[in-house]
Amino acid sequence: MRNHNVTIGIFIVSGLALFTLVLFTIGNEHKAFSPHVDLHTEFANISGLTKGSDVQVAGFDAGEIADIEVPKSPSGRFRLVLRIDQRLNPLVRTDSLVTVDSEGIVGDKFVQIHGGSANAREAAASTTLPSKEPLSLADLLESSNDLINGANGTMKGVQGKLDGTLDAATKTINNANDLIVGIKQGKGTVGMLLRDQTTATEIQQAVANGEQATVSVKQASASLKHASGQADALVSDFASRGLGGKVDQTLLSARGAAGNLDSISGQLHQTMTEALGEDGRGVDAGGNIQQSLSNLTETTGNMAADTEALKHEFFFKGFFKHRGYYSLADLDPTTYRNDRVFTNPDNGRAWLEAARLFEQTSNGQERLTTEGKLQIEEAIAELGDGALNGPLVIEGYSSQSDSGTQLAASHSRALLVLHYIHARYQVDLRNIGAVALRNTPPPGVHKETWDGVCIMALKASS
Amino acid sequence: MSSENSVTLHGVSKSFGEKQVLDNVSFSVGRGEAICVLGRSGTGKSVTLKLILALLKPDAGNIRIGDDEITQLEGQELSRVRRRMGFLFQSGALFDSLSLHDNLALPLRRLTKKSKDEIEEIIDRVLGQVELAGDKHKMPRELSGGMQKRAGLARALVFEPETLLVDEPSSGLDRITASEIDDLLLDQKVRRGSAMIIVTHDLHGARRVGDRFAVLDKGRLAGLGRPQDLEKHENETVRRLVGG
Amino acid sequence: MIGIFDFVGAVGLFGLRVIGSVFRIPFELEQIWRHIGEAGVRSLALVLSAGLALGVVMTLHTRGALVMFGATAMIPKLQSLGFFVEIGPLVAALLVAGRVGAGNGAVLADMRATEQIDAIEALSMDSFKFLVVPRVVACVIALPLLTVFMDFCGILGGYLSEYTLSHISLHLYLTRAFQGMQWSNFVPPTLKALVFGFIIGTISCFFGYTTNEGAEGVGRAATSSVVVSSLLIILADVILVKIIFLTFPGSAT
After folding, report:
1. Which pLDDT does position A214 carry in this prediction?
2. Which helix (H) or strand (E) holds A210?
3. Where do the structural domains in chain A lie, given as residue ranges?
4. Chains that touch A (3 or more CB pairs under 8 A)
5. Which residues make Cβ contacts (< 8 Å) with residue A158, sequence separation at least 6?
6. What is the DSSP string of A354-388?
């Protein structure tokens, strides 16, 4: 009997103890037993908050909503009594903003009191804090949906147009390439070729194609611009609400891409105009076409890259970065000399002398000699198997006396080699670039001056 | 005690639903007198006992215990009157969750202000009377039928009742055991001067203990009187029940 | 149909009689204590093991769904809320209805059949006060306690199950389990068990105390006790939950 009584006693006492324990645990959760401070705020829409909903101060669980006063008229606002732990009171200033947040997509709604500015007064009990009306998730989803739909449509348009443009541009380049190959293979003089009716028509056709391509690119860029304008507005809306950082970034990238396209199309246009303008002056036209062609190939390479990006992912963040460099077409000598990527001593380099590479033509231009071509091939072979897959930069050097000629000659030398490599090995144009470095190699390669060309294989970027 | 009769029934009727169990039954029992209620099964013999103890309420008629009209009493008053009666149930009706000792101690502890020692003394005395003194720590299921009945009698005696109501004292018992119970009842009647109402089928026992017989037939009191008188009763059922 | 109303009326009166008798002397504290032992202590092992098993099972079930939504942090809270608000009181009540309800029904019906109840009356004791009231009161007292034990075991089971899957620390589990928990999520549902206890005690005693059909009535009283009290517990739960929602709007989460 005595034992029995003890068992019953233990049962009752431990049951009550458990009950009390839970009671106190819940009480602690609500800071019911710690000193607290009541603050006020007002909302026109409390988006589902109830008495007892959590209150956080700067993300720290601080207390709960002690009471909600219902407004008496539609113009009135709900008055919330926020009961927070006194220890957190110093964080709350008279200018602390109160917002309604939610714990993830399916979580509870809670009140967030943002930390105020340090020079504002500490909010005393019963202070009414300023509030920002909540943005409902539904609104947010709707607007981002619109944005994505708009962007999607634009992208499809751009893709279609760019595809067309690219085809046209490629065709142009192929035409021009044929011409150049013709010239190089010595089928008559350049003047003759240019006077020849068929060739002239071909060139004109090529130019016309190029122009058409330009127009298409312009249209594409216009609609992209429109899209980016639209996106801009949304971006600023998002930014003002402090939301959608990722979307923001994406839209910035989109804007960048659009700008890129814009400049590309400008370049293309210029190239075409140049080519057209020099039509009459036979001798220069060859060089010009060559020049235009290299511009065009670079441009097309860039465009192809951009288009690939646009085709494959909407969030292009970091696309170019992944390739380890920005765009080989954008290489300017100053940046080039100072960029560690290019001056890295680990990069493979093959130094080729001008005397063996080039010979003068009758019009004072340079061209590759047969020996030079062999040398290039040897150099490429020496650079290793990976050289043709990885990025290649052709540095042009010239030791001419005046700086103007130096630049022009180093530029044209680099391009000559570039085209040869491209034609010989079908190297991806996105992976090959040319830079005119006058007569001075970049620091760190242990060469004071150079006259000729250096083929540099970038070490795989880390 | 102003009335010479311990229990008086007057015009008592009781029915369960359609079935009339007792119809206008009247009899009384005086102190030191034992009356045996005989009748065929289902003629309301046990009901008569429960009516007397106010475990059931009669549809009509009066039941007086001494000077108290028990049908009108409730609560404390009823409790006071009931305590003057002891009830020996057919099967003993011991509380199976309590030991024999606790079965007897329970009413004493709850209803009297007696000290622990006094209670122990009473228990020992009544258990001695029914010859169960050595079994007081046994549980009811450990007792035989006869022992259970004697234990039930012991419990009925703890308040030293003026009136003893006995329901089928010999049912389920062999003749010898039954006559032991009869001896105990006789002893009570003679030594303590208790009034007794005994419901029974056992004519042998009834003739030993009972002074008068009350014969119930179809709910009516068919005959009332000394056994030898009833043997010559005009009603055949009465004659047969009394064994004439 | 009339039979149902007859039954409802009889049970209602019986319940009122219980309530009326509780506050009259004698208070039968000894009997109440004894029956807390019967109804509470002896049901404890049943409730603890059932709670533990249910806790494990419930986490196994809810986990999959919550993981799908990436809401694994919600598992402890769902567990604690589930047990505090509903599973604890309801399952504890149903278990007790099965064990104690059947016991009360059978014991009282047997006492009626063997005239023990009459014997108590014959000894000038109030059999209702002596047999029925302590049983009901013991159920009312024991069930909230058993509910708390059930809650405890449910959360423990949930923790064990979650621990084997994610090695979460007990402290983090408990922190999450009680995060945002309100008193209204715990106190009213636990007090709900008082009503369940009253239902179990009253219904089982009603069948036991009023049956007078001999030995065969004993089994029937036990069966009826369990069936009717289980059913009434669930029906009462519907009403009680609604009342809790109305009284504590915050708990309707």
Report:
1. 63
2. helix A197-241
3. 1-30, 35-133, 151-321, 323-462
4. C
5. A220, A223, A224, A227, A310
6. HHHHEEE-TTS-EEE-HHHHHHHHHHHHHH-GGGG
**CA A305 to CA A430: how far, in whole Å?**
7
Strands B163-167 and B19-30: unpaired
Does any CB of chain C come closer than 8 Å to the CB of residue B197? no
Look at residue A278 in the predicted model and tell me its pLDDT: 42
- Cα angle A5, A10, A16 (rounded to 5 degrees) comes to 125
CB pairs under 8 A between B and C: 55
Q: What would you report as the CA-atom Rg of chain A, rounded to the nearest whole angstrom?
A: 35
Residue C144 touches chain A, beta carbons under 8 Å: yes
User: How far apart (Å, rounded) are the C-alpha atoms in residues C248 and C196?
Assistant: 20
Instruction: Indicate the pairing of strand A392-397 with strand A432-436.
Output: parallel
Measured between alpha carbons, how far is residue B70 from residues A234, B30, B57, B81, C115 in Å?
A: 95, 17, 9, 7, 21
Domain boundaries, chain C: 51-251
Hey, what amino acid is at A424? Answer: R
The reply to whether residue C249 touches residue A51, judged by beta carbons under 8 angstroms, is yes
Distance from first CA to last CA of chain C, Å, rounded? 39
- Looking at residue A222, what is its pLDDT? 65
- Contact (CB, 8 A) for A295 and A287: no
Task: Please state, in angstroms and rounded to a whole number, the distance separating the CA atoms of residues A408 and A361.
Answer: 16
Tell me the ipTM for this assembly: 0.86
CA B176 → CA A114, B92, B143, B205, B236, distances in Å?
A: 97, 18, 17, 11, 30
Least confident of A157-166, A240-249, A386-395, B149-158: A240-249
Task: Please identify which residue in the block is written with the tokens 């009332």.
Answer: B224
C-alpha torsion C140→C142→C148→C149, nearest 10: -150
Q: Given an 8 Å threshold on Cβ–Cβ distance, is A11 in contact with C148?
A: no
- Smallest CA–CA distance from C143 into chain A, residue: A15
Specify which residues A396 forms β-bridges with: A436, A453
Instruction: Determine the Cα–Cα distance for residues A200 and A289; give it in Å rounded to an integer.
Output: 13
Distance of residue C214 Cα from the nearest chain B Cα, in angstroms: 13
pLDDT bin (cut points 50, 70, 90) of residue A349 is confident
CA nearest to B155 within chain C: C123
**Does position A238 have pLDDT exceeding 50, yes or no?**
no
Which SS3 state, helix, strand or coil, does residue B100 take?
Answer: helix
> What is the per-residue burial (b if ≥16 Cβ within 10 Å, else e) of C204-223?
bbbbbbebeeeeebbeebbe
Secondary structure element (H or E) that encloses residue C93, with its range: helix C88-96
Residues 6+ apart with CB under 8 A from C230: C94, C97, C98, C101
User: For residue C91, is pLDDT > 90?
Assistant: yes
Domain B5-95+145-242 classified CATH 3.40.50.300? yes
Residue A349 — φ and ψ, nearest 5°?
-130, 140
Q: What is the per-residue pLDDT across A305-343, written as a single tens digit (0 to 9) for each? A: 554 544 444 333 343 444 444 456 656 777 778 777 777
Bridge partners (DSSP) listed for residue B5: B30
* Intra-chain end-to-end CA distance of chain A, in Å: 81
Which amino acid, A1? Answer: M
Which of the four CATH numbers 3.20.20.70, 3.30.1330.60, 3.20.190.10, 3.40.50.720 does domain A323-462 have? Answer: 3.30.1330.60
User: Who contacts C246 (Cβ-Cβ below 8 Å, separation ≥6)?
Assistant: none
